[in-house]
Specification:
The chain is of the alpha+beta class. It contains 17 helices and 19 strands.
Length: 500
C-alpha cells in the first residue's frame, strides 16, 4: 500500500520550512537575490526540487499489514526492508497538527519493546487509513480473526475526560521546571537593563545585585509559569481516556492532535504525581509507563493529567489492583542526615559571602544568609516526611519527593533488577537505598523507583522479599498462561479433548 498522495506536497513543504534558515543565509549573502523576488525564486526552486524528491520517495515507499507483521519498504538511494512483528508492538500513536487535519493527513508511529528508536513511521496516510491500521493492529495483537468482534474488544468505556476547571487548574499549577533552564538563558540579556532601571549606578555592585535579583527571579518564575500553562492547556485540551478490552485509548491536543493505545499488559509501572500546589488543592495526576519508547521519548504517558486525588487513586487501582496505601517512613536518623547536609550547604554560602565581604572590601550582609539555618530543620523534616515504601502482596509501592511527590506502583512480575546500595555517608548512619528497576525506567542511574535512606538491615530484607515475590509472581503467571492455552485448545477441538 502507498502513502496518501497529499503527503508529497506536504513533505516538500516541510523540507522548505525545515531549511528556512539556509534560505535566509543564502538571501543575505547573495547580492543577486536581493529583494522579495529573489528569495521567492529561491523558495520556488527549492520546493520544485523537494517535490521531485518526495515523488520518488512516494513511489518507492510501500507498506503492508499481514497477520503477523507490518512490512515497510522504503528508500530513495538505498532500499530498506523492515518487518515489524505485531506481537512486539507496544504503542500505536497517531498525531495530526492543524495543517494535517485540514488536509486529512495523519502520522503513525509504532514503538516496540526494547527498540532503540521509533520502529516504524508512516508519514503520512489519510486519517481513515491511520485509524484502520491502529484498529487492525490492536485486533491482530488480541489474536482475533478478521470480522471477529468479541464483546470485550467491541465495547469502549470512557474512564476519564478532563473538565474545563481541571484544564484551567492544570494550566495554573502545571509548572514545568525544565523550562527554567530555557528562560534563564535570557537572564544575561535582561539583567543589565533591569539593573540600570532599578539600581543606583553609584551603589555597590553586590547591593545592586541584591536589589534587582528578586525582580529578575520573579520575572523568570512568571514567564516559566505562563509558558508552562500554555503548553499544558494546548497539550491536554479535550483529553479523553477510555478502555476497550485490554487497552487504554487516549486522545488529546489543541494545535496538534494525538491519539494512541496503551496495552495494559505492556504497562510497567504506575506513577501518581502531586506537586506542592496540587497537594494543597487535593489534586494529582496519573501516568503509566511502558517499555516501548526510544531514548529521549516520553515512555511515561498521562492517563489522567489532573483530577481529584481520590479519583486518580481509584482509576489507578482499576488498572493495577494495588491495596490502599500505608507507607513506612525511613528511620528518624535519616532526617538528621538531611539536617546536617542542608546546614553544610548554608554554611558554605555564608563562608563565600563572608570572604567576598572580607577580602574584596565590598559591603555585603553575609550574616543575613545565616538566617537560612532556621529553615534547615523544616526542610529536612519535609523531605523525610515525603519518603516511604509499602510492601504489598502483589506490588511494591515507593514514594519520594517534596516539590513534586511521586508514588510509583511496581508489580513484582515487572521487576528487572532489585539492588540495595550504601554511600559512604549512608554507612555512617546505617542507612541504604533500595532501587527497583523495570524495563520502563531509566536504569540504575536516574529516574528509577527507589526507597531512599531506609534502614540498612531493612533494605537487605526488602531486597530478598521483592526478589522472592518476583519469582513467585512469575510462576503464577506462567501457570495462568498454561491454563489459558489448555482452555483455548480444548475450546478449539472439543472432540479431541473428549477422546482424551
Amino acid at each position: 500500500m502507498k502513502l496518501d498522495p497529499l503527503s508529497i506536497p506536504y513533505r516538500a513543504g516541510e523540507s522548505v520550512v525545515r531549511l528556512a534558515w539556509v534560505l535566509v543565509i543564502a538571501f543575505i549573502g547573495t547580492s543577486g537575490l536581493e529583494g522579495p523576488g529573489g528569495i521567492g525564486l529561491l523558495v520556488v526552486g527549492w520546493f520544485v526540487i523537494a517535490i521531485g524528491y518526495q515523488l520518488i520517495y512516494y513511489q518507492r515507499f510501500d507498506y503492508e499489514l499481514t497477520e503477523d507483521t507490518l512490512d515497510i519498504a522504503s528508500g530513495v538511494v538505498s532500499r530498506r526492508q523492515r518487518e515489524i512483528p505485531i506481537r512486539r508492538v507496544q504503542n500505536v500513536d497517531i498525531s495530526r497538527n492543524v495543517v494535517q487535519r485540514v488536509l486529512g493527513l495523519s502520522r503513525i508511529d509504532l514503538e516496540t519493546a526494547g527498540g532503540s528508536s521509533t520502529e516504524g513511521s508512516l508519514r503520512y496516510v489519510s486519517t481513515e487509513e491511520a485509524q484502520r491500521l491502529q484498529s487492525e493492529i490492536a485486533r491482530l495483537k488480541r489474536g482475533e480473526t478478521e470480522g471477529e468482534e468479541t464483546p470485550e474488544s467491541a465495547a469502549e468505556r470512557e474512564l476519564f475526560a478532563i473538565t474545563p476547571k481541571e484544564l484551567g487548574l492544570l494550566g495554573v499549577i502545571g509548572i514545568d521546571l525544565r523550562l527554567l533552564g530555557f528562560v534563564t538563558v535570557i537572564l544575561p540579556v535582561v539583567f543589565p537593563s533591569v539593573q540600570r532601571r532599578f539600581g543606583d549606578p553609584f551603589q555597590d555592585p553586590l547591593l545592586a545585585l541584591a536589589t534587582t535579583a528578586p525582580l529578575v527571579a520573579l520575572a523568570i518564575v512568571a514567564v516559566t509559569a505562563a509558558i508552562s500553562g500554555v503548553i499544558a492547556v494546548t497539550n491536554y485540551y479535550d483529553f479523553h481516556l477510555s478502555r476497550r478490552g485490554d487497552e487504554l485509548l487516549y486522545e488529546r491536543g489543541l494545535l496538534q492532535r494525538f491519539s494512541g493505545s496503551i496495552p495494559l499488559e505492556k504497562i510497567q509501572t504506575l506513577a501518581i504525581s502531586e506537586n506542592v500546589i496540587a497537594r494543597r488543592l487535593g489534586y494529582a495526576s496519573l501516568a503509566v509507563e511502558t517499555a516501548g519508547y526510544a531514548p529521549g521519548d516520553a515512555g511515561s504517558q498521562s492517563a489522567i493529567p489532573l483530577a481529584d486525588r481520590a479519583r486518580v487513586l481509584s482509576l489507578g487501582q482499576s488498572v493495577e489492583a494495588f491495596d490502599d496505601l500505608e507507607f513506612e517512613r525511613p528511620p528518624k536518623r535519616a532526617r538528621e542526615r538531611y539536617i546536617v547536609r542542608y546546614a553544610i550547604v548554608v554554611a558554605l554560602f555564608v563562608g563565600i559571602a563572608y570572604a567576598v565581604d572580607r577580602w574584596t572590601g565590598l559591603t555585603f550582609a553575609w550574616y543575613a544568609i545565616a538566617s537560612l539555618l532556621a529553615v534547615v530543620p523544616v526542610a529536612a523534616h519535609l523531605k523525610w516526611r515525603n519518603l516511604g515504601y509499602d510492601v504489598q502482596d502483589e506490588y511494591v509501592v515507593l514514594q519520594e519527593g517534596f516539590w513534586t511527590r511521586t508514588i510509583t506502583v511496581v508489580p513484582y512480575y515487572r521487576v528487572q533488577t532489585v539492588v540495595d546500595s550504601q554511600s559512604i555517608f549512608q554507612r555512617r548512619r546505617r542507612l541504604a537505598t533500595l532501587v527497583v528497576d523495570t524495563a520502563g525506567t531509566s536504569g540504575l542511574t536516574s529516574g528509577q523507583p527507589r526507597a531512599l535512606d531506609i534502614d540498612a538491615e531493612t533494605a537487605r530484607a526488602l531486597r530478598e522479599t521483592v526478589a522472592d515475590r518476583l519469582q513467585a509472581s512469575l510462576a503464577r503467571r506462567r501457570e495462568e498462561r498454561r491454563r489459558e492455552r489448555l482452555t483455548s485448545i480444548t475450546a478449539e477441538s472439543p472432540e479431541t479433548a473428549s477422546d482424551d
